[in-house]
Amino acid sequence: MTLVVVTGAGSGIGRATAQRFAKQGSSVVVSDINVETGAETVDLITARGGRAVFRRLDVADIEDWEAFAAWVCDEHGVPDVVVNNAGILIAGGFLEQTGADWRRMIAINLMSPLVGSRLFGQRMVDAGTRGHIVNICSVGSFIPNQFAPSYSVAKAGVWLGTQALRSELAPHKIGVSAICPGLIRTNLAANGSRGGVSDTESTSWAAKLGSAHRLVGRSPNRVAFAVTQAVRWNVATVPVGIEAWGGWYLSRLSPSLVRAGSGLLRMGLADIATDLGGKIFGRNLDTAMPVTTALPTTGPVSKGSK
Amino acid sequence: MKTVIVTGAGGGIGRETAKLFASKGDRVIIADIDMAAAEDTAIEIVAGGGTAIARSLDVSSEEQWEQFGAWVRTEYGAPDVLINNAGILDLGGFLEMSAAQWQRTIDIDLMSVIYGSRIFAQQMIDAGTHGHIVNISSCGAYFPSKLEPAYGVAKAGVLMASQALRIELARHKIGVTAMCPGAIRTDLLANGKRAVLVEDELQEWTTKVTAVQALSFAGPDKVARVIHRAVAHNWAIVPVNPESWALYYLFRLSPSLVRLGLSVASFDRAEALLARFAPLIDRLGSAKHRKAMQA
Lengths: 306, 295
Hints:
The complex is a heterodimer of chains A (306) and B (295). Chain A is an alpha/beta fold and 306 residues long. Chain A is built from ten helices and nine strands. The longest helix of chain A has 29 residues, at 99-127. Chain A starts with a strand and ends in a 25-residue tail after the last helix. Mean pLDDT of chain A is 86; it is low at 283-306. Chain B contains eleven helices and seven strands. Chain B has a seven-stranded parallel sheet, with helices on both faces. The longest helix of chain B is centred in the middle third of the chain and has 29 residues, at 99-127. Chain B is globular. The interface between A and B is large, with 48 and 50 residues.
């Protein structure tokens, strides 16, 4: 039996990943900043006969991280798999986002997965555990854009850090993988904020984008599947979804082509799209995200379903 | 007269870049956390007939950036060129470096670029200046190694930030360039620290790696010349040295291959090699020194 730690497991990709590992027979430490949603994930898992415990973790807080890692190892032992999934989205142009927005983004999306990797990586090395560390990056790691430049910068950094860690931990037989999902049906956008506008505007914008995002993206179960496959086969980089595979190869083939393409997509265009999305899908807000518990069991990770 | 800001211009690439732009007739603002070094550069430029002003700036502080930005705007108006050059390289494995050491690298190497770019891009837009921003990234941005993971992470962030900014500022006719130099003869390693070492050990290690970096084929003046050309032609990503170009293309072709190749580099091997080649490095170093003295 393996012990799996998942951060940000109160919703979306984190929850789906925790559920998938639990279904495979692992014990899961569910962590999230939100106590209610985190406890919900544990309930969902235990209701189906799985093993899971919850502990609150604010990934932006270094001290909380250290306490969390110590608690996990003392109470449950050194984990076999750590999935650093917790992340946020702050949209808005490079200049629209304030210095504080940037610092928050770098702390949560760039530093926190690396902190988690470092703390648990050290414990795996000390204990001789042949474990695995998975960092959830994004297709944004490869695509510079004007919608969420801070998100891309953070994800680009975490992707490179993951690669460096992979080379450092290989002699200890600890695997390290970066998962780079494309558009996934999660609350990332709905929980996001937008720089350069008032709080109310930011909230309504996030709600609109969120409702569109939920219908456009694919299921977080797809990412959960990719995570378990990455752990099984120790893959370095796993894009999820056709747009993620496209971004991964295209950005390597021609960075300037990617820039030219993403230069066409401006915030104004995004506003129109989110407005439309909000109008068309907005009234279905409550029903737009069906709770899917069926997990895909077969099929290659590499093919997009849409 | 164009105004050019160069951060970290007290030494190395920054200093050579400031001198080059000044020699082309631009007014250069020398920003450095080491005020004495900044003044030194400014004095040298002024003595050569150029225009230079030294100013103290800790690039990791957003507050200092804002004060610096306000001062530049009042004194000289929006700058024409901003060169975000200041940076550090602390060596140390991913697990060896403490949270504080990681944060120091991120603050100085990554956040400085964000703060500076935001403030001066806004000034350029407001003034309608068709300016240019140059961010010094590194071939570390596509060099996932065990020796300097934090530096690589920060520089990968700089590379991505430069590209995102380039897209966003294109419609204001402001160019953005990311430079990826490679091994350059500067004090980067001499000024850096290695994570686990303290005092005597650190000093010894630093002396050794400094001697090696001093043998680098390319001088900072080469990078300065390429920066000048990059501004003129508005290039996007510019590896400078042959090894940086090679890594850039190799990494795009196969990140795994580069990772595997680089994984032979470790601190144990570096130490063994340094000890083995110490006499040779000394000899090369002193030969170079003699040559410089004769010249």
